[in-house]
Amino acid sequence: MKKKHLAYWQAYVDDMRDALRLWTWEVEIVHAPPENQRASASILAEDQRNNAELHLAPDFFDDTPEEQRYMITHELMHLHLWRYMNLTNELAGQMGAQASEFAQVQLTRMLELMNDEIAKAVAPFLPLPPRAKEESA
């Protein structure tokens, strides 16, 4: 990703972070694809420092502005739920191995679905990424 391209998207992510009231978080776009190769975007947070890395896959940039807005919203919304997700995983880890695995899978799935529905409801009220000429350069 070129510096100008990265700066464009970082500014947009910063604006979205603020719009979602995540002022205490530092979110940095990292020039590396998500670990999940099927994902267009993913976010990884440091639990104690309110720092997060946003990974954007190459195909993210081929999506429509509406889809890009939704994906950024979805990933940023994870930060509101981050500590809750960590807590549920820790609690699930206190169970026996079989119950723990089942609980972690189910809790992660439920939190992901909840996050997805919230992002779908919120994203249309947030700004689309501006289409600057240099963005596509």
Question: What would you say this structure looks like, in words?
Answer:
The protein has 137 residues and is α+β, with helices and mostly antiparallel strands. The protein contains three helices and three strands; from the N terminus they run H-E-E-E-H-H. It has helices spanning 3-19, 65-93, 97-122; strands at 26-30, 41-46, 51-56. It has a three-stranded mixed β-sheet, with helices on one face. Strand 2 (41-46) and strand 3 form a beta hairpin. Helix 2 packs antiparallel against helix 3. The radius of gyration is 16 Å and the shape is elongated. The protein starts with a helix and ends in a 15-residue tail after the last helix. Residues 132-137 have low confidence and may be disordered.
Concise description?
With about 140 residues, the protein is α+β, with helices and mostly antiparallel strands.
How far is it from the N-terminal to the C-terminal residue, by CA? 10 Å
Strand content: 5-15%
DSSP, total strands: 3
- Secondary structure: helix percent: 40-55%
Number of helices: 3
Order of strands side by side in the largest beta sheet?
1-3-2
Question: Which overall shape is indicated by the principal axes computed on the Cα atoms?
Answer: elongated
Uncertain spans:
132-137
Question: What would you call the structural class?
Answer: alpha+beta
Order of helices and strands: HEEEHH
Average residue-wise pLDDT: 85
The profile of the biggest β sheet is: 3 strands, mixed
